[in-house]
Amino acid sequence: MASKHLINSPTTLVIESLEGLCLLNPELRLDRDARVLYRPLSSTPHQRVALICGGGSGHEPAHAAFVGRGLLAAAVCGNVFASPSGKQVRRGVELVHPAQTEGEDGKGTLIIVKNYTGDVLNFGLAKEALSSHGVNPVRFITVGDDVAVPRSRITLVGRRGLAGTVLLYKIAGALAAQGASLDSVESVAQHVADNLVTIGVATGHSHVPGTERGKDVLAEDEIEVGMGIHNEPGVLRLRGEQGNPPALSTIMPRLIGMLIVSEKDDPERGWVNFENGTDVVLMVNNLGGLSPLELSAVSLEATKVIQQRGLNIKRVLCGTYMSSLGMPGFSLTLLKLPSTNATKEPSQNTLLSLLDTPAEAPGWGWVSGQPPVPLSSQLTSSTSSTSHKSTSASRNTETNQAKQVLEAIRKACNALIQAEPELTRMDTVAGDGDCGLTLKAGAQGVISLLGNEIDGSSLPSACIAIAGVAEDKMGGTSGGLYSIFFSALAQGLNLPSSSWSSALQHALTKLYTYTRARPPSRTLVDPLDAFVASLSQSSAVDYRAAVARAEEATLATKGMQAKAGRAVYSGTEGDADAEEMDPGAWGVVVLLQALVGK
């Protein structure tokens, strides 16, 4: 649970956030006392309906960042995870309610709230008070799209409102911006609300600024299905293997199953009937603590499973729409669309058109306006035309020398794979934590090519293949350095009267033309240079002695101030993180030790 926040004070955070949104859009106005962010309808005189929403803060960009042209007219904001008062809501309606003139109809305000007791009570209280004072008409829609909590537990309160509410904002807001009447906007909004389902999953709680840090309720390998956006307990916990949470491919079929199950098959959770061939909109929502890298992978896995279940995805939306501060998790929302031959309004084309219409609000991101296409049509081959594959004529894997080379390479790769946890731990202390995984990826890539591109019968070809793996599978600085070194080693082995010593020296010289790192630098060149120098300076080739020199050079990186690599930017000489050996240097030693059988 992340419990550190970059703020001035918990007591001023909400109002400062609203003031910050005003900076993004000069059309917006803020009533500081009522904490209402709004856009006067006078800027769009043809618009007859004002959409107003709100609730507790902490779910940004919902609700305030959706105030803008083509979306909401106003958002009323309470404290973090707490509903605004009825007085605040009344002020919000007063600020945007379109004035009626004699003979006019179709104007009014539509209040949209998530189905939580405090929100329903306070927004409902405001509606009734305004109606009793002649502010009419004001309509009210409650959204409950959660499918996690079973019917038997929510007999009185109904389903919770989750991220699907944002689809309602967008579709109803776009329709209102076109000048539609209150009846039309309400009807479309209610249709959307009736056809939404959402399920959430998280690996831990969010932390409310200004409160004490609570205990983590989930183990490192656990996730919780149905955890609420206010840290309410979920309905199911799932565990992974080897200390990691379960893979997306494991949990996604279960999540999608909970979304689309029929009431007949599951009376507790079947809320919307998704028949085979149903057209849907998919929204993948970040609950606040998930990286965009992970969120895109979630989108891919969700799309695969939904299509496998026989549904047609017409739009995919992915981003942060309704968070729970920094909760590490995501939610999935499906909106069931009318069939293309349905005669009742709204039509599928109408809903998709309203969803696709651009909106001028910072919380609303880009939408492609097209359904996803088969992924195979978007993938291209990156097979290098310079790939050097061994041919049957040059391959001679049955020779003893080839077998010895293959075995040495295999041992070195397995040693790197086994060393990954320790290398990762070392790099987590002194770097960005990816060293072990990078070397492991390279080692696994080499193993997959053993006996094919890497057959041991041609050492230069083997080096070229290893260089290709380093470039493709490892990437980053380490991948580049290894790739250059092995490519240059292949060149050195092809030189006249070459030896291992001369070829290694050739490779190191080539490497130094592309990196400024020189020993001592607290990088992988420290042991590499020591190993090559030991072989070059000795008349008798002694690989074990050369490896010992590499080990000494790596041990010397303890407490050393880095002169190259990312470690340059963190820590100073004598810092605790510098008391670890450089993980990249130790990776070279692990590799060399395995190659010489030490």
TrEMBL record:
Function description = Catalyzes both the phosphorylation of dihydroxyacetone and of glyceraldehyde.
Presence of keyword Glycoprotein: no
Name the SMART domains for this protein.
Dak2
Q: What positions does the entry give for substrate binding?
A: 56-59, 114, 119
Q: What is this protein called?
A: Dihydroxyacetone kinase
For region Disordered, the annotated ranges are: 363-400
Q: Name one Pfam family in it.
A: Dak2
Q: List the PANTHER family hit by this protein, alphabetically.
A: DIHYDROXYACETONE KINASE 1, TRIOKINASE/FMN CYCLASE
Give Gene Ontology CC terms: cytosol
Which InterPro entries does the entry link to? DhaK_ATP (IPR012734), DhaK_dom (IPR004006), DhaL_dom (IPR004007), DhaL_dom_sf (IPR036117), Dihydroxyacetone_Kinase (IPR050861)
Q: Which reaction does it catalyse?
A: dihydroxyacetone + ATP = dihydroxyacetone phosphate + ADP + H(+); D-glyceraldehyde + ATP = D-glyceraldehyde 3-phosphate + ADP + H(+)
Q: Where is the DhaK domain?
A: 9-364
Keyword set, alphabetical order: ATP-binding, Glycerol metabolism, Kinase, Nucleotide-binding, Transferase
Q: Where is the composition biased (Low complexity)?
A: 376-394
Q: Tell me which residues make up the DhaL domain.
A: 403-597
From the UniProt record, which GO molecular function terms apply? ATP binding; glycerone kinase activity; triokinase activity
Matches recorded under NCBIfam families: dak_ATP
> What Gene3D superfamilies is this protein classified in?
1.25.40.340, Dihydroxyacetone kinase, domain 1 (3.40.50.10440), Dihydroxyacetone kinase, domain 2 (3.30.1180.20)
What is the species of this protein? Answer: Rhodocollybia butyracea
Top-level division of the source organism's lineage: Eukaryota
One of the GO BP terms on file: glycerol catabolic process
Question: What family name appears in the similarity comment?
Answer: Belongs to the dihydroxyacetone kinase (DAK) family.
| Active site annotation, chain numbering | 230 (tele-hemiaminal-histidine intermediate)
